[in-house]
Amino acid sequence: MHWPKLSSDQIKKRVFEALNKNINYGKSPILGIPATYLDEEVFYDDAPFLENAPFLSTLIANPNHIGCHTLNNTEKLFQGTQELENEVIRICAEEIFGGEENAQDGYVSSGGTEANIEALWIYRNYFMTEYQCAAKEIGLIYSEDSHYSLSKGANLLNIHPLVIAVDKESREIDLSQLNERIDEAQKNGIRYFIVNMNMSTTMFGSVDDINRVTELLNKKKLIYKLHVDAAFGGFIYPFSNPGNPYTFRNPNISSFTIDGHKLLQTPYGTGIFLIRKDLIKYVRTKEAQYVPGTDHTLCGSRSGANAVSIWMILHTYGAEGWNTKIKKLLGSTSDMCSRLDDAGVRYFRNPFINIIAIHSGYISQALAGKYFLVADSYEEQPKWWKIVMMPHITKETNNAFMNDLERELRLKKQMI
């Protein structure tokens, strides 16, 4: 990974150059576009500070990035900021996930949920087109720790969900149950499979063992497409784990989801979808003929400013700076885990991820509420409480939490 760190002046120059390449609602004779810049009665486009605010300037200019711009025949009105989006896709696909040059498509989505459903939509249509099958013949394999967007996608697309249990200590997929569920599904007419693997689950930060799973799938000679939900882990795991098997160099993987609005600290609405070339065509919406190149995305119109925010942050750090930031986050996470070990607290943590899931038996509701910990369930009695070591968390906050936890544990021990 070697994308460059740029100075604030270089970043500002590139973004304003991109905006100047875009069509300007105020200067061009635009009659046919059902959009304009942000309302000038509320958002002032001549405020002096905007000269030094490239993101806010992009927000006010309001470029629409409808479509997928890694394809050649797309909307040209906003080509300047679209080029920055394509740079984001290239960095993520080629540098972070090891893809070959110009061998991937992708776009900045509304978030991980949309990106995950986009993948399922593509693969459902791929199987229905290439194998002339019905939706009821397609199964979706994912673990019980997976994000709820998988269940949502299966419901929307009318494909059969196959939810696989995980070991409650290691959080690894139960391969024997996976084998049994596949056999059962095949007996019930499921012939094609979409497989979701997690690069950091939402609650635990666990990472599915893709090699063990694909070894089983390939041994059974299944026809499948594999998607990786790296919504949380995409901007940390490839940097923290030198042996990361989740890359486009792995022939079993077809697509990735990443979220910018988690570790990258971009605004909400900045998910990223990446997929190998020649697959996104299966969701081309030919009815969108008034859009040059039609549309291949789930959301349609989307803010170009969101793509610019990702580009700006990536280049503010550069690859080297981002590695340094990740090391700092992991160091803070490891420090807290050391204190939890000393206190005899049971927890789960993947060593390459900044999530700690603490068993609920060690955490009172009051303590969880004071520090805004997240439960694995608000419908039932929580079994786990989650800490996510994000950049806003200070050493003082960590110490305060651990002091309160240790105090509670001492009181509990005295009462026994």
| Strand numbers in spatial order across the main sheet | 1-7-6-5-4-2-3
* The CATH H-level homologous superfamily of the largest domain: Type I PLP-dependent aspartate aminotransferase-like (Major domain)
Task: Measure the end-to-end span.
Answer: 54 Å
Low-confidence runs (pLDDT<50, min 5 residues)? Answer: none
**Overall 3D form:** globular
Please give the largest β-sheet: 7 strands, mixed
Care to count the β-strands? 11
Mean pLDDT: 95
Strand content: 5-15%
Radius of gyration: 23 Å
CATH C-level category of the largest domain: Alpha Beta
Query: Structural class, from secondary structure content?
Result: alpha/beta
SSE sequence, one letter per element: HHHEHEHEHEHEHEEHEEHEEH
Q: What is the total domain count?
A: 2
The name of the CATH architecture of the largest domain is 3-Layer(aba) Sandwich
**Percent in helix:** 25-40%
Number of H/I helices:
11
Annotated CATH topology of the largest domain: Aspartate Aminotransferase, domain 2
Describe the structure.
The protein is an alpha/beta fold and 416 residues long. It folds into 2 domains: 79-300, Type I PLP-dependent aspartate aminotransferase-like (Major domain) (Aspartate Aminotransferase, domain 2), CATH 3.40.640.10; 318-415, Aspartate Aminotransferase, domain 1, CATH 3.90.1150. 39% of the residues lie in helices and 14% in strands. The chain is built from 11 helices and 11 strands. It has helices at residues 8-21, 54-61, 79-96, 112-130, 149-157, 175-187, 210-219, 237-240, 304-342, 365-370, 395-415; strands at residues 104-109, 138-143, 160-164, 192-198, 223-230, 253-259, 271-276, 347-348, 355-359, 374-375, 384-388. The strands form 2 sheets. Strands 1-7-6-5-4-2-3 form a 7-stranded mixed sheet, sandwiched between helices. Strands 8-9-11-10 form a 4-stranded antiparallel sheet, covered by helices on one side. Helix 8 links the parallel strand 5 (223-230) and strand 6. Helix 2 (54-61) crosses helix 9 and helix 4 runs parallel beside helix 5. It is globular and about 80 Å long. The N and C termini lie far apart (54 Å).
